[in-house]
Amino acid sequence: MRYRIALLLALAVAGWLLPYGLDSYAIHVVNVIIIFALLAIGLGLAMGVGGQVNLAQVAFFGVGAYVTAILTTKAGFGFWVSALLAVVATAAIGLLVGTPALRIQSHYLGIVTLGLALAFTNWVTNAQLAGGAEGISAIPVPVLPGVDLSSEYLFYYFELIVLVLALAFGLFVVRTGLGRRMRATRDDALAAGALGAEVPMLRMTAFLLASVYGGVAGVLYAGLIRYVAPESFGIANMFLLLAMVIIGGRQSLIGCVVGAIGLSVVRELLVDHPTYAQLAYGAVVVLTVVFAPTGLAGLPARIRARLVRRTAGAAQLRPFQPYEPVAAPADSSVLLRVDGVYKQFRGLKALDGVSLTVPRGEIRGIVGPNGSGKTTLFNVISGLYRPTAGRVEFDGREMTGKAPYRVARAGMARTFQNLRLFGDLTVAENVLVALDRSRTADGWRYVVNPFSVHRQDRRLRAAAGEVLERYGLTEFAGAVPRALPYGTQRRVEIARAVAARPRLLLLDEPAAGLNGDEVRQLGEMVRSIRDSGITVVVIEHNMGLVMSLCERITVLAGGAVITEGTPAEVAAAPAVIEAYLGDSMSDGDLPVPTEVKQ
Amino acid sequence: MQVFLQTFIGGVSLGAIYALVALGFSLVYRTMGLVNFAHGNVVTVGAYLASTFYLSTKLPFALAMLVAILLTGAIGLVIERVLRPLENRDFDLMLIGTIGFGIVLDALIIMIWGATGRAVPSPVPAAPLELFGVRIRTYDLVVLAIAATATVLLVFFLSRTKRGAAMQAVAMDHEAATAVGIHVGRSNAVAFMIGAGLAALAGGLVGPLLYVSPAMGGALGIKGFAAAILGGFGSIPGAVVGGLAIGVLDSFTAGHFQGYSELVTFLVFTVIIVIRPTGVFGERTVNRA
Amino acid sequence: MSGATFTVAGLTVHYGGVCAVRDVGFEVPAGQAVGVIGANGAGKTSTLKAIMGLVPRTVAALRFGDVDLSRVAARDMVRHGIGYVPEGRHVFPGLTVEKNLLLGAYARRWDAQVRAALAEVYELFPVLAQMRGRLAGALSGGQQQMLAIGRALMSRPRLLLLDEPSMGLSPKLVEDILAVLQRLGREGLSMLLVEQNAKLTFEATLSCLVVENGVVAMTGTSAELRHDPRVRKIYLGL
């Protein structure tokens, strides 16, 4: 910590002293670099943090600059008023550009955003209002009482303050709830939705942030150069920005700044050979993508991982601490009702009229041979699939076909057959995403009352600490999922799901890949979770676990329920034996399993 | 009506070029699930190579095109080989990787041929023909004929040959494809090579129509990409329909909106894509599970 | 054709921290059918995929006759006479039935011999002949299963690996598949049948392995295992 403060102080001093050593050309270059650094942070927020392909960043830059230029030169507004309106306008465009992101992703989003950027260039090159190909010149100097901002040296300090504030704000967003939810959505939108993250709104927020940063950069550009023309906001600069962010490391805002500074310096050094510079950074982008996808910012972690390989086994999984049992509910009313659900895919009927009811406080097992529709059923219940016919009712409320994040917010949580942890978030952050119930619309608090955000984050971290403690994961809090043993990862997923404080927990093959000891621990954990007041439904193949853990079992085969009952009843039912073994058993030489009751 | 037809016909030959570009995009997407953002730059390389062999070494137009196509195909092989580790794993990173290649190609073009462009004379007499009161340039007919032939050959390759079937199989299920003996990496390399070849064909053909410059690939690439998506990404008939549609749309907007034609095209495209992301014929692609 | 024995020894597969298959070994004598049964998650599919080389594996021995297959790439297994019918069919949905079948013979030249093989497959599965021009994705589950088997047969394999061909099929269709497997067995094709459906396996094979948690828990002839109560216990995890 002390080291960090010393480093920050050193940087502050260096930043303050920098202009003294530079001539007027050099300070101009530095000023342009700072503007690109701002743009890079914005792009990093959208692409690296939000996971949204954003090739329109240069258009946001352009909108900010041009609106400032037009309002000052054509409408006669003062600089600061124009600047404010410019940022607002850019934000509006950002939301507009983000709207396609609600429906399309990846390459489609890339082409749409790129197309819109080109459309912007097309417009400014042709429109009279924007001065056509000649652009707009003679933008007035921004007036700051007592400071002559026409001096590049003084403008530098102005830009530096803006950059520092912008970077600090960006880092604040990334490290608290909103940024975490954005990163979770980036890593695994499915799992994020299942934990209540409002995926569409978070994607829009990514574009909103990118556009605000772009707009601010545009304003600064207009105030610095005092001349705007179409070439500065074209595709060449967009790809340059992209290179900065990729090489620097798109997931790290500091990496983006480093990338912007580094690439700009290289271009300056090669100013007499611009094409060689372009060749170089294009090649570095390709090399980065193939060999070091996390960019420069990711290098320290990779180097550390190589060096520290041996001591990896230090962290220990501590035992699970059972919950305080809550009194069983007086009514065992129905919590989950599935009514005649059909699910038809092209050419495959996955669910064929499945009905079941789960009362409050029960541990229900769902079993059946491979391909019998168990996970499909979970997907319908949790909102991932819309059923072809039938209804899902949760706690008396209609849930059929609702988006997963709405179902999650209504009180349902789940785990996945193939483990869906957020790969680039730590264990603690995985749990924090589940604990964080804030709505994206409350994001305005970041601007108006950041302290309340900070306080809430502290509370969440304390709560996360308790969850990790209970599940014995404290020593793994700072680890990334892929570094953990498989059994530990499974436990993290369960801890995360329970952290969302659900009333109904769906576990999809939680014992898969676990050894006998781990399965036993799992059974105790699930029983304790139920005792804390959560109803549990488990899909499992490990029949020993199912028989000893579940109070009732529903058996699926071929997409339909073939039997339901207590473990003893189900184990003896001929239909079940037939479904599994393909043989009917009437000799009854199967021993009746004894349940281990708590 | 006359004007309408003239505008329509005027857009068809450029539309055929867009269709060729779109075919290249769609083929690579359909077989590899990769969006190649360097495709436009490959078109430019093809245009420069073809015009260089045609103008400087005085090869006959057809031969110049052929050499350009072969050389550009080799570039496609290089790109695929370098990005192979990312195949079937991280699509977003692959996309950015192709952007990187695009930047490199753009720089190489300027380094080799300079930043100013060149005009390419038409290899056939420039006098337009008159058909039903509509004027068509001879060269436009040449472009249409060649583009149509290329499309037919591509369709033939995909539907009638063993390698063509294998290429599609790889996209649908690369594990099952491996089990029947198909070399997935090589199949992808061939797909990329053909895609690059189509790009070079488009670039070579467009020389006499537009001014050959380093920036031309950007506009052609973007419009070709939009055409591919509009028609249904990965669909061959979709690429053709999309290309012609955008060519015609371009022709009409150029007449009415002058310089804003690109803006209009893009707004139209964006609206359609948001309403129906899979395009007119539906998306045909790799299983991204 | 003088037969070749297929031998596996010391097969081990690790998936992301889990040991899915540990030290599995067995033999498939020439012209015989061997079954691998077990509950879900027992490691049966992993075993087959590892034999094919579709997942990373370590193996002490992998031989077909006197040919060492341990270093052969997955795509070349078919050229050594190994046909593979994946779990879940995995037909090429956007291609026609006939194209799917022809691709099964990708490793050979598409000549008169391949046409003959195609005719044989159509004779074995008449319904495929009827649907030859339909897209494979439009077929029902049972038809796709037949297509997957037919596709594997097109390469004229000497050993056929089948992964849960009965999954998701109705009992009637399972009987049809059984009939086909029995016929193929009579024609001298070696088979390795991985299945969850024990009854089908006992009727289609001469000997079986029972796999539990990635290791071989029991072996024996199908006749013996069929009546062994321990098999049921292993399935129901008791």
Distance between the termini of chain C: 44 Å
Please tell me how large the radius of gyration of chain C is: 17 Å
Proportion of beta-strand residues of chain B: under 5%
What is the count of helical runs of chain B?
Answer: 11
What is the name of the CATH class of chain B?
Mainly Alpha
Q: Could you tell me how far the N terminus lies from the C terminus of chain B, measured between alpha carbons in angstroms?
A: 50 Å
Query: Under CATH, the topology of chain B is which?
Result: ABC transporter involved in vitamin B12 uptake, BtuC
CATH names the topology of chain C as Rossmann fold
- Total number of helices of chain C: 9
Kindly list the characteristics that best describe this protein.
heterotrimer; A: 598 residues; alpha/beta; ABC transporter involved in vitamin B12 uptake, BtuC; Rossmann fold; 2 domains; six-stranded mixed beta sheet; four-stranded antiparallel beta sheet; 24 helices; 55% helix; disordered C terminus; B: mainly alpha; 2% strand
Question: Explain this structure to me?
Answer:
The complex is a heterotrimer of chains A (about 600), B (about 290) and C (about 240). Chain A is α/β, with parallel strands linked by helices and about 600 residues long. Chain A folds into two domains: about 15-305, ABC transporter involved in vitamin B12 uptake, BtuC, CATH 1.10.3470; about 335-580, Rossmann fold (3-Layer(aba) Sandwich). Chain A has helices at about 1-15, 25-50, 55-75, 80-100, 100-105, 105-125, 150-175, 175-185, 190-195, 200-225, 235-250, 255-270, 275-290, 300-305, 375-380, 405-410, 425-435, 445-450, 450-470, 485-500, 515-530, 545-550, 565-570, 575-580; strands spanning about 135, 225-230, 335-345, 350-360, 365, 390-395, 395-400, 410-415, 505-510, 535-540, 550-555, 560-565. Chain A has a six-stranded mixed sheet with strand order 8-9-10-5-11-12, sandwiched between helices. In chain A, strands 4-3-6-7 form a four-stranded antiparallel sheet, with helices on one face. Chain A is elongated, with a radius of gyration of 29 Å. The two termini of chain A are about 50 Å apart. Mean pLDDT of chain A is about 85; it is low at about 585-598. Chain B is mostly helical and about 290 residues long. Chain B has one domain (about 1-120, about 140-275): ABC transporter involved in vitamin B12 uptake, BtuC (Orthogonal Bundle). Chain B has helices spanning about 1-30, 40-55, 60-85, 90-115, 140-160, 160-170, 175-180, 185-205, 215-230, 235-255, 260-275; strands spanning about 130, 135. Chain B has a two-stranded antiparallel ribbon with strand order 1-2. In chain B, helix 2 packs parallel to helix 4 (about 90-115), helix 5 (about 140-160) packs across helix 6 (about 160-170) and helix 10 (about 235-255) crosses helix 11 (about 260-275). The model of chain B has no long low-confidence stretch (mean pLDDT about 85). Chain C has a single domain, classed as 3-Layer(aba) Sandwich (Rossmann fold). In chain C, strands 6-7-8-3-9-10 form a six-stranded mixed sheet, with helices on both faces. A four-stranded antiparallel sheet of chain C has the order 2-1-4-5, with helices on one face. Chain C is globular and about 45 Å long. Chain C is built from nine helices and ten strands. Classes of the chains: A alpha/beta (about 600), B mainly alpha (about 290), C alpha/beta (about 240).
